[in-house]
Amino acid sequence: MKHQLPQKFNEIYHKEAQYAFFSPGRVNLIGEHIDYNGGLVMPSAITFGTYLLISPNNDNVFRFRSLNFDENPEVAVQSSYKKDGDGWFNFPLGVIEHFTRDGHHITGLDMLFFGDIPIGAGLSSSASIEVVTSFALNELFNAGYSKLDLVKISKSVENDFMGLNCGIMDQFAVAFGEKDKAIVLNCDTLEYDIVNSNLGNHVLAIINTNKSRKLVESKYNERVEECQAALKALNQELSINYLCDIDTATFNKYKHLITDEVVRKRAQHVVEENDRVKLAADALAANNLGEFGKLMYASHDSLRDLYEVSGKELDAVVEYAKTNPNVAGARMTGAGFGGCAIALVKQDEFDNFSKELNEFYTAKIGYAPSVYQSLIGSGVGTLLVTSEA
């Protein structure tokens, strides 16, 4: 479909697209539920994402079209914009509102979006749309924003215009991602390192459990509160801003201060997971996929047993992965309670992995997962309209 986008644009708007852009989705390779605890995460861009073809118009109107959704709204150029229902187009409209509020005069545009990110898989399709729109407007109107500015704008759109609670990892990963590299990001300071992540003869398997995640928001807030309670207890003798300000050895020395066993388990996961990210970065840099895989499994076990955000569906994926000698490692990724798991699978065994996992999962859960193959891809950028879009 992506190769047909220039033709589709022409069919819809009866003219050629002048510009084309792409922004990927993302996965978090390791470092889960520690972003709000001042810790390190290790996301990477993937090779699925959002394409945007665009041409200016003289009609003083923004025309939003998508090959993924039915809504085809037109919004007149104004001095300010408000969210209109729950339609997908509110994400790019929110970006236009932010640029306008910053004093940039954004004139009429004909836009065509297409995403090949699996819908509902938790791979940051919304961040992908926000970042590709921000990048496009910055280029077209010479707004002068840095890439980090675009990340912050996109996060603001998600939080303030859309009213959705999220951190900055998703937008950061899809903007700063590099091919065959992972990002080690400090979610508090936004300092980051790029780590070589050549997967060699392995590919990234993304497994959507296809389970509805209705409990995520309430459980997420519950975990945040438990971490805050742990921090308060530790600060009876320590003076730290975040749980991730200490390492595992220090935590073990002071964990007796946390008298609630459940809260102590939550804090233990956070501190140990932060340490795992550091070890994982070293393993990837040394091209040691075996060690990295062990850390992935340890991360999942911790999320299952200490943080309790997994579930039988995600556990089934990892349970099968552990039996397959062609899998280096696997873990749940994202908020949990459904959503996705990831696995590092030998490329020439991917089809067998997918078939056998499907059979195992369906027998255990009662319905099939969706399995996708990806490499670690590049971040947001400009495409050639005729050849790559």
UniProtKB/TrEMBL annotation:
<dbReference type="InterPro" id="IPR014721">
    <property type="entry name" value="Ribsml_uS5_D2-typ_fold_subgr"/>
</dbReference>
<keyword id="KW-0067">ATP-binding</keyword>
<dbReference type="GO" id="GO:0006012">
    <property type="term" value="P:galactose metabolic process"/>
</dbReference>
<feature type="active site" description="Proton acceptor">
    <location>
        <position position="170"/>
    </location>
</feature>
<keyword id="KW-0119">Carbohydrate metabolism</keyword>
<dbReference type="InterPro" id="IPR036554">
    <property type="entry name" value="GHMP_kinase_C_sf"/>
</dbReference>
<dbReference type="Pfam" id="PF10509">
    <property type="entry name" value="GalKase_gal_bdg"/>
</dbReference>
<keyword id="KW-0547">Nucleotide-binding</keyword>
<comment type="pathway">
    <text>Carbohydrate metabolism; galactose metabolism.</text>
</comment>
<comment type="similarity">
    <text>Belongs to the GHMP kinase family. GalK subfamily.</text>
</comment>
<dbReference type="InterPro" id="IPR006204">
    <property type="entry name" value="GHMP_kinase_N_dom"/>
</dbReference>
<dbReference type="InterPro" id="IPR020568">
    <property type="entry name" value="Ribosomal_Su5_D2-typ_SF"/>
</dbReference>
<feature type="binding site">
    <location>
        <position position="66"/>
    </location>
    <ligand>
        <name>ATP</name>
    </ligand>
</feature>
<protein>
    <recommendedName>
        <fullName>Galactokinase</fullName>
        <ecNumber>2.7.1.6</ecNumber>
    </recommendedName>
</protein>
<dbReference type="InterPro" id="IPR000705">
    <property type="entry name" value="Galactokinase"/>
</dbReference>
<dbReference type="GO" id="GO:0005829">
    <property type="term" value="C:cytosol"/>
</dbReference>
<feature type="binding site">
    <location>
        <position position="126"/>
    </location>
    <ligand>
        <name>Mg(2+)</name>
    </ligand>
</feature>
<dbReference type="Pfam" id="PF00288">
    <property type="entry name" value="GHMP_kinases_N"/>
</dbReference>
<dbReference type="InterPro" id="IPR006206">
    <property type="entry name" value="Mevalonate/galactokinase"/>
</dbReference>
<feature type="binding site">
    <location>
        <position position="158"/>
    </location>
    <ligand>
        <name>Mg(2+)</name>
    </ligand>
</feature>
<feature type="binding site">
    <location>
        <position position="220"/>
    </location>
    <ligand>
        <name>substrate</name>
    </ligand>
</feature>
<dbReference type="Pfam" id="PF08544">
    <property type="entry name" value="GHMP_kinases_C"/>
</dbReference>
<dbReference type="InterPro" id="IPR013750">
    <property type="entry name" value="GHMP_kinase_C_dom"/>
</dbReference>
<keyword id="KW-0460">Magnesium</keyword>
<dbReference type="GO" id="GO:0005524">
    <property type="term" value="F:ATP binding"/>
</dbReference>
<keyword id="KW-0808">Transferase</keyword>
<dbReference type="InterPro" id="IPR022963">
    <property type="entry name" value="Galactokinase_bac"/>
</dbReference>
<dbReference type="GO" id="GO:0004335">
    <property type="term" value="F:galactokinase activity"/>
</dbReference>
<keyword id="KW-0418">Kinase</keyword>
<dbReference type="InterPro" id="IPR006203">
    <property type="entry name" value="GHMP_knse_ATP-bd_CS"/>
</dbReference>
<dbReference type="GO" id="GO:0000287">
    <property type="term" value="F:magnesium ion binding"/>
</dbReference>
<feature type="domain" description="Galactokinase N-terminal">
    <location>
        <begin position="7"/>
        <end position="56"/>
    </location>
</feature>
<feature type="site" description="Transition state stabilizer">
    <location>
        <position position="26"/>
    </location>
</feature>
<comment type="function">
    <text>Catalyzes the transfer of the gamma-phosphate of ATP to D-galactose to form alpha-D-galactose-1-phosphate (Gal-1-P).</text>
</comment>
<keyword id="KW-0963">Cytoplasm</keyword>
<feature type="binding site">
    <location>
        <begin position="120"/>
        <end position="126"/>
    </location>
    <ligand>
        <name>ATP</name>
    </ligand>
</feature>
<keyword id="KW-0479">Metal-binding</keyword>
<keyword id="KW-0299">Galactose metabolism</keyword>
<dbReference type="InterPro" id="IPR019539">
    <property type="entry name" value="GalKase_N"/>
</dbReference>
<feature type="domain" description="GHMP kinase N-terminal">
    <location>
        <begin position="90"/>
        <end position="177"/>
    </location>
</feature>
<feature type="domain" description="GHMP kinase C-terminal">
    <location>
        <begin position="281"/>
        <end position="361"/>
    </location>
</feature>
<dbReference type="InterPro" id="IPR019741">
    <property type="entry name" value="Galactokinase_CS"/>
</dbReference>
